[in-house]
């Protein structure tokens, strides 16, 4: 079944209105009906354009705020504290071994799942920083990591990225609605 767009729906409604009233009205009356319907369509189109323009402005503002936040450096002490909270005994990322890298990702995701709903965008910046450090460490020791562990790590990486993207979309959606 073909979906009708707003304009094609409006034309169908207009034609239906004209054909229903065509037998009982004069050409001048039908002309006035067409003008009224066209005015209604113009009003609807103007409202939709205004809403779209406002949403675009809000999205641009959200993007601008996000860029400004990303330009601010992360505090080293806060990063260390956050790493300790997220990774626990695996917080010393630079010393992770091929045997401990997979449990570090598991710990990161366990904490991310538990805390993500309370996190602000800045908290996500810290979590992402820790995640990137883990990825860098993985890159350095990858050739010594068991295949089974690497596959599990890839799944955990995908989950982390999904959680982060989901939060970004949620925040963008809220910014556009406001």
From TrEMBL:
It comes from the Bacteria. This is Lipoprotein.
